[in-house]
Amino acid sequence: MILKTLTIVNFKNIGMVTVEWSPKMNCLVGRNGMGKTNVLDAIYYLSFCRSISNPIDSQLIKHEEPYFMIEGQYATDDGEPETVACALKRGSKKRFKRNNKEYRKLADHIGLLPIVLVAPSDTNLIDGQSEDRRRLMDMVISQYDRMYMDSLVRYSKVLQQRNTLLKADDEPDPALLDILEEQMAMEGETIYKARKNFVDKFLPVFNSYHKTIADSKDKVGLEYVSHCQRGPLIEVIRRDRMKDRCVGYSLHGVHRDDLNFTINGHPLKKEGSQGQNKTFAIALKLAQFDFLKHTASATTPILLLDDIFDKLDADRVGRIVDIVLSDNFGQTFITDTESAHLENILRGYTHDYCIYDVKEGEICLREK
Fold it and tell me: In Å, how far from its chain's centre is CA 326?
């Protein structure tokens, strides 16, 4: 997938811009706070119907403006045109259109424009909560498996209903709990199978990328942990119904799944240095790209690299750049505060590339 042209109106600090992009490498240069990441966020929004960092859509509208609008003109790997646009007025619901036809469900859009973001916050995958690691699995699987997204929505809904009964003052109806738990178990088993299948196929791809980037003898591991591994999920859920009632929420289910990360047989969270953690996180994301390329309708994802070189030595930076500039990767957007840094990276690069200066929400193509 190639983003040919992007139009942004009143999104964050960006007033109104229309930019034509290189089909291969696009570098956004500027000081912090100038709008580089906001450009990536606009591209991300067109793929996932939400912002990278702010879940409140109304707060994405530029101050004092009544709405925002983003439109992308794309070309598929087969050269077919696609136009995706979204708009939000203050006090109204956001609207998404594909080729001028509005979506009835935003979930139907997920996966059309596969995208992978590599950002400083990716280290949260290692030292953050299990929710961050489940989100990694969910974002990848949802981009190639439409039924998975439906199961996630149904599971979340029935989980919320069960939790409401568990925390109520009145004793919940056992028959109603039985029904909700059966639905939880059915959707949960579907989610578990999809996640397990993903991890089994993803692990060797991840190991390969980590070995290339780290160029060391560090042995890394990734283990999927789920309550479904304890037996039929319906039995696991019902086994502790009384305990759930005491605490007021569901202690068991795929909403508690996790990924254990290790390095040399020890928990990465405890043993990894800043450089090792960042290398691990970047390898996860590049493996995600590779995985999506071969599963999401054979569509090459767009790669977004946001300020990724901090806390990495020059050798690792060089190996990462060699990977993303290879023919295996497609269109890439990269941000940096140092123009000289990017120019040094691109020296000797034979493919097409463009450098854009970003200042106070304005984007200007630099002449080569």
Answer: 22
Pure H helices in the chain: 36-48, 124-127, 130-142, 146-167, 174-214, 233-239, 241-247, 268-271, 274-293, 314-324, 339-346
The pair of three-digit structure tokens given for residue 291, joined into one six-digit string: 């995985």
The CA-atom distances, in angstroms, between 114 and each of 138, 139, 222, 293 are: 13, 10, 23, 8
**Cα 256 to Cα 180: distance, rounded to the nearest angstrom:** 17
Q: Please report, as a single letter, which amino acid is at residue 88.
A: L
Task: Please report the pLDDT score of residue 311 as a whole number.
Answer: 67
Q: Quick one: which of 101, 43, 48 has its CA closest to 73?
A: 43
Q: What count of residues does the chain have?
A: 368
pLDDT of residue 368: 66
Report the C-alpha gap between 44 and 306 in whole angstroms. Answer: 12
Residue with tokens 């087969």: 78
12 CB burial (10 A radius; 0-12, 13-18, 19+): buried
pLDDT recorded at residue 297: 60
Residues of the chain with pLDDT under 50: none
Rounded Cα distance between 51 and 7, Å, is: 16
The whole-number pLDDT of residue 292 equals 83
Q: Which two tokens stand for residue 358?
A: 């970003």
- 75 has which bridge partners? 2, 81
Q: Please give the pLDDT value at position 105.
A: 86
Judge whether 313 and 321 are in contact, CB under 8 Å.
no
C-alpha to C-alpha distances, 166 to 156, 223, 361, nearest whole angstrom: 15, 31, 49
